């Protein structure tokens, strides 16, 4: 009898604890809000990171695609990207995010091009009102890290909260899960 009372008490208490825990998690994700992961990727490295962030946060993916395709020849691409940056040229984008208003947190991913974001990402950021939203950048690169991109984002989106970004070497994206998880955990976006 004693055993039965104790085990029923244990069942009751553990049920109570798990329902409180569930409520806390629900409240936590409601507080963090709806997550969008927007990214631009030419050769696929940044796309790999974007998918890892999607899997870990449960956010929705949006790929930034230009109307005019970039050259597949590396040198031609490097030269064109430099010209676009020098001219402040904003390449036209193929599609828009449906209901940007509904998102509270926007992860934005890109390769480092000439020390900052590619110009299509500048255009993306200039196309929406980010007031009250949190922007979290991530970037793949071959040694320049985030470059000046975080400050550039702060200049374009002065009314958003722009967190510090995650830079990952292009060749290391496939084994970056641990870095991604601890960065997300530090910003509170994953358990
Ligand atoms: C046009 C262009 C400019 C680049 N400029 C830089 C740079 O300034 N610093 C750097 O570390 N890597 C630079 N890179 C390397 C890319 O950032 C790196 O390869 C990245 O992982 C590519 O990402 P993706 O596969 O998503 O396109 C450049 C690459 C290209 C194509």
Protein topology:
Blueprint: H1 2-32, E1 35-39, H2 45-57, E2 60-63, H3 74-87, E3 105-111, H4 119-126, E4 134-141, H5 149-156, E5 161-162, E6 166-169, H6 177-186
Parallel strand pairs: 1-2, 1-3, 3-4, 4-5, 4-6
Helix pairs in contact: 2-6
Provide structural commentary.
The protein has 191 residues and is an alpha/beta fold. Helix content is 44%, strand content 16%. The chain is built from 6 helices and 6 strands. Strands 1, 2, 3, 4, 5 and 6 form a 6-stranded parallel β-sheet that branches. Strand 3, helix 4 and strand 4 form a beta-alpha-beta unit. The site of flavin mononucleotide has 20 residues, from helix 2, helix 3 and strand 4.
What would the keywords be for this entry?
globular; binds flavin mononucleotide; 191 residues; alpha/beta; 6-stranded parallel beta sheet; 44% helix; 6 strands
